[in-house]
TrEMBL record:
<dbReference type="InterPro" id="IPR007138">
    <property type="entry name" value="ABM_dom"/>
</dbReference>
<keyword id="KW-0560">Oxidoreductase</keyword>
<dbReference type="GO" id="GO:0004497">
    <property type="term" value="F:monooxygenase activity"/>
</dbReference>
<dbReference type="InterPro" id="IPR011008">
    <property type="entry name" value="Dimeric_a/b-barrel"/>
</dbReference>
<dbReference type="Pfam" id="PF03992">
    <property type="entry name" value="ABM"/>
</dbReference>
<feature type="domain" description="ABM">
    <location>
        <begin position="12"/>
        <end position="102"/>
    </location>
</feature>
<protein>
    <submittedName>
        <fullName>Antibiotic biosynthesis monooxygenase</fullName>
    </submittedName>
</protein>
<keyword id="KW-0503">Monooxygenase</keyword>
Length: 106
């Protein structure tokens, strides 16, 4: 589903960055894709998301939007996502989810 970015959005935007070697990029991408398809997109408050991979295959960024901050936090606390995040983190040198608010749209 396309994500429309508007300045009046009052929900929660989350951008997560995963750093890894090119050798593990495909594995991390597959695991993230499965997490979105099987779990994340079905959680209460999920509005949409996307996965981006850099050309060097050393970074993956995900972008997701949620109705409320608590909806994202509740998803992270589910037993299934806790296990998935442990597995994904084991393949990454760094994993950082950051919550943002829309400041401007061009």
């Amino acid at each position: 589903m396309p994500i429309a970015i508007t300045p009046d959005f009052d929900g929660q935007t989350v951008v997560s960055t995963f750093e890894m070697t090119p050798g593990t990029c495909s594995d991390v991408l597959e695991m993230l894709t499965e997490a979105y398809e099987q779990v994340i997109r079905h959680q209460p408050g999920f509005l949409g998301g996307a996965i981006h991979v850099n050309d060097a295959q050393t970074r993956i960024s995900t972008y997701s939007r949620w109705e409320k901050r608590g909806d994202f936090q509740a998803m992270l606390r589910t037993p299934e996502m806790r296990e998935r995040n442990r597995e994904i983190s084991a393949l990454c040198s760094r994993f950082e989810p950051v919550m943002y608010e829309v400041a401007a749209v061009f």
